[in-house]
Every structure is written in C-alpha cells, then in structure tokens.
C-alpha cells in the first residue's frame, strides 16, 4: 500500500519525544511521525506517481497547525486507543477531498471520516490516553510545500512532489 503524506517539521518530532514518558505505557509508540493525506490500495507505483502528478498539478502550498492532543477511543483499524496530535488545515482537507473524489475513499478512515492527525501511540488504556491528551502544548504551525509518496512495504518515501505542483 502507498500513501500520500505531508512531511511534518522537526518541531513535531521533538514534541513527540517530549511526550514519550506519557507514551511509554502504550503497546506501540511511534518513532516515525507522519501526516497521511490519502491512502492508495492495490495500485502500481509508476501509474500512481503519474496519476498524482496530474491530480496535483497547480496544487498550491498550504498551512497546517498541530493544535492539541486527542485520542480515538475506537479506531476503525488496529489496537485502541490511538493517541494523536490533532492537525487543523483547511488546505489539507480540501486536498484530501479532491483526491478522495478522484481515487475513491477508503471506508471508515477517508472521505467524511478523514481526521488529519499525527499518530503518537496505540494500544494502551483509556486512562493513559486521557493522561496524554491532558498535556498542554504550544501550537506548531508550518507551511506544507512538499508531499511524499510513502511505500509501506519498504517503509520509505518512494517519491516527493513539491508544491506548488
């Protein structure tokens, strides 16, 4: 599976590191932090890359902002709860809708169900999730000027697309 990801700034990784004492009780704390814009299942890479280049033609850079810590009590996939950094970005929401219209939406996690976020940890107790979510943070703002095509089978970026595309 591939995904189109928004690279997050180093400040987000530092924030996640600062939160690690609160994430230690979870089954899995993320060491790689990403912001997924759109997932692509059952697609060949070269074809996807060309389709994305066409779909993203003229796509301007946009703003994003980490606002607070939240959790999904019952995520549609995987172990619960999922603790995450909430991201506000009208530009990202618009881009996601455009790509979901063009490529289709994965039920339960995309389209109207899409929640922009950076996963911190999953598989702990609700009490632990509440403890992390209660931590204050200063918002982190950045301009998204690049998107990465991520290959989950190799766990690496397969291509990058600069914005404006």
Biggest beta sheet attributes: 5 strands, antiparallel
Given helix and strand content, the structural type is: alpha+beta
Largest beta sheet: strand ordering: 2-6-5-4-7
Q: What is the succession of H and E elements?
A: EHHEEHEEHEHEEE
Stretches where pLDDT falls below 50 for ≥5 residues? Answer: none
What's the gyration radius in Å? Answer: 16 Å
Name given to the CATH homologous superfamily: Cyclic phosphodiesterase
Beta-strand residue percentage: 25-35%
Number of helices, counting only DSSP H or I runs of 4 residues or more: 5
Q: Which architecture does the CATH hierarchy give at level 2?
A: Alpha-Beta Complex
Structure explained in plain terms:
The chain has a single domain (2-162), classed as Cyclic phosphodiesterase (Cyclic Phosphodiesterase, Chain: A), CATH 3.90.1140. β8 (146-151) and β9 form a beta hairpin. Strands 2-6-5-4-7 form a 5-stranded antiparallel β-sheet. The chain has a 4-stranded antiparallel β-sheet with strand order 3-1-8-9, with helices on one face. It has helices at 10-18, 20-23, 45-55, 90-103, 126-133; strands spanning 2-6, 28-29, 35-40, 62-72, 82-88, 117-122, 140-144, 146-151, 156-162. It is of the alpha+beta class.
Summarize the structure.
By secondary structure, the protein is α+β, with helices and mostly antiparallel strands. Helices cover 28% and strands 33% of the residues.
